[in-house]
Amino acid sequence: MKKLGKVLLAILGVLLALALLLLAVRLVNGFRYPEPPALAVNLDPASYPTTVPGATVERVDLDRLQGFHLSPDTPSHDGLVVIWGGSDGGPDFARAARIAGQGYHVLSLFFFGQPGQQPILAEVPLEAFEDALRWRAEHAPGPLTVIGTSKGAELALALQARYPDIDNLVVYAPTTHTWQGLDFATEKSSWTWAGEPAPYVSFRHADPQSVTAMFAAMLLNTPVRLYEQYASALANDPDAERAAIPFKLSGHLLAFAGEDDAMWPSADAARHWGAQAPGRTEAHTYPGAGHLFGAHDGWAGGFAMGGNRAGNEAALAASDTVLDASLAAWHPAR
User: Fold this and answer.
1) Torsion angles phi and psi, residue 253, rounded to 5
2) Cβ neighbours of residue 8 under 8 Å, at least 6 residues apart?
3) Which pTM value belongs to this model?
4) Which residues lie closer than 8 Å to 112 by C-beta, 6 or more apart?
5) How far apart are CA 192 and CA 199, in angstroms?
6) CATH classification of 52-330, choosing from 3.40.109.10, 3.40.50.1820, 3.30.360.10, 2.60.40.10?
7) Residue 201: HSE in the Cβ half-sphere, 13 Å Cα cutoff
8) 191-193: strand order across its sheet
9) Nearest Cα residue to 190 out of 148, 224, 144
10) 2-32 vs 208-220: helix axis angle to the nearest 10?
11) 82, 65 contact by CB (below 8 A)
């Protein structure tokens, strides 16, 4: 019995040492991968400013239509630009403010997580976009450009396949397919249409080793790389073609992506969309850039985004130049 007790104590000591080592590794990694301030997301509408350079900000709170109207001090372009962010739930307010400051009316919108909306990014009704169309008819008629990033790009692409009201589309870090929603308690589609779930690619089809790598990164508190999960799920799903998003846009499309995206295969998707209608559709991909452009080192929100700071910043500057020229062409000057 004494020998068994010593063995158990030894095992307990090893387990305790491993737990302490794991805790130390997690603490160190927490300092190694701080959250980049440039990508911080604010989900409280009440805390947003009421003015930005060149524009005033008005809260929009109309059932499913949740976000802000950025009204330029000197309107110089007809129509409306609608913007939303990605799976972080934010309205991509910084981009909206920059565009509004150039004389455009902008709706900067949340598409889930606010009153009147789905609480998480799962089974979001695509028909909610009709609230924005009604608002536009009353407040900012004219050309309509929709801008989305990541899951917001997926949403924007799903909408162009259903709403001919959209004149132009800009997608950052896009996908080619509809994906499983982010309700990890129950598997659901990201979107619904006419009350039915949109066909989607399921994470169940991801290679097991990619899932193991994800949990290992979570355990060690390092940025979680999801590229292999998305890529393998898409390659392995026998019904993936049902979830492919068709191209039905009659106007122009810009697709931007980083060649070093660590989240999902957005560069391939950008090239796919850019090839749909040459002359109307363009793809711009950037080496050294990841899933999100801007001032960060390749991670955010606990996830690996890819790219490096120089590449991500250069991609933001270059894509802004292309976007500004395109918006000016699509929305005539007054």
Assistant:
1) -135, 135
2) none
3) 0.92
4) 89, 118, 119, 120, 121, 124
5) 9
6) 3.40.50.1820
7) 24
8) 124-125, 191-193, 196-197
9) 148
10) 90
11) no
Give the span between the Cα atoms of 155 and 157, in whole angstroms: 5
Tokens, residue 149? 């990033």
Tens of pLDDT along the chain (334 residues)?
667 666 666 666 665 665 655 566 565 556 566 777 766 788 899 999 999 999 999 999 998 999 999 999 999 999 999 999 999 989 999 999 999 999 999 999 999 999 999 999 999 999 999 999 999 999 999 999 999 999 999 999 999 999 999 999 999 999 999 999 999 899 999 999 999 999 999 999 999 988 788 877 777 778 889 999 999 999 999 999 999 999 999 999 999 999 999 999 999 999 999 999 999 999 999 999 999 999 999 988 889 999 999 999 999 999 999 999 999 999 998 7
Nearest to 115 by CA among 62, 191, 46, 151: 62
Rg (CA), the chain: 22
- How far apart CA 324 and CA 103 sit, in angstroms, is 11
Q: Alpha-carbon distance 95 to 250, whole Å?
A: 25
What type of residue is 250? S
On whether the CB atoms of residues 121 and 114 are closer than 8 A, the answer is no
